[in-house]
Structures are given as structure tokens and as C-alpha cells.
Specification:
single chain, about 55% strand, mainly beta, globular, seven-stranded mixed sheet
């Protein structure tokens, strides 16, 4: 049974930093990454990494967020710097087995003064 458990969300002031972590279990995963969903909006891509370590980012977060992956621990981490109020959302971790996506439960990130 595939499970993804996220941690690290919270409240932070604009300009601050947060680190999100996600531990996956129950499979051998190819792609891993993060999406986010703000209230009343669709779920949007944030960042992803593939098994060789290559990383890809949404334009809105490039240069501020860094995704990293530990294959041995099936863990993906999202370091978020220079946070803005518009980064406020529920952040969802995902992991892929083949073309199948598996999702975490989501963790709230709120950027506010």
C-alpha cells in the first residue's frame, strides 16, 4: 500500500522560509514532487524531481524554491525561501509509479504578516 506523509507546513511572514518534507512508502517511485492549491483555485504544479535528480519548477517559484530528493529514504523536500502571500495554499506531495500518481494528504502553508 502506497502512503505519502507530509510535514513542515505552517504560518510564516512574507520574506520568510519554510521547508516541506514528504516520505513515501510502499513502492519504487520514479517522479516525486509538489503541487499546491489555493482557496477557490485549481491545483497547480510547483516543482518535481525525477530519479536521476533533475529538477523542474513552476515559473512563479523558480529561484525561490528548491526541491531535493533522497532516493534511499524515498523522501522529497521542498525548501521555500522569500515566501510571498500568494504562496499561501495547501501543498500536496506526489509520487509516481509508472504513470500512476499517488498523493499525500496536504499541508497548509500560510504567508501573512
Amino acid at each position: 500500500q502506497v502512503q505519502l506523509v507530509e510535514s513542515g507546513g505552517g504560518l510564516v511572514q512574507p520574506g520568510g522560509s519554510l521547508t516541506l518534507s514528504c516520505v513515501a512508502s510502499g513502492g519504487v517511485f520514479s517522479g516525486m514532487g509538489w503541487y499546491r492549491q489555493a482557496p477557490g483555485k485549481q491545483r497547480d504544479f510547483v516543482a518535481r524531481t525525477v530519479i536521476d535528480g533533475a529538477a523542474y519548477y513552476a515559473v512563479s517559484v523558480k529561484g525561490r524554491f528548491t526541491i531535493s530528493r533522497d532516493n534511499a529514504k524515498n523522501t522529497v523536500t521542498l525548501l521555500m525561501n522569500s515566501l510571498k502571500p500568494e504562496d499561501t495554499a495547501v501543498y500536496y506531495c506526489y509520487a509516481m509509479i509508472g504513470a500512476q500518481y499517488y498523493w499525500g494528504q496536504g499541508t497548509q502553508v500560510t504567508v501573512s504578516s
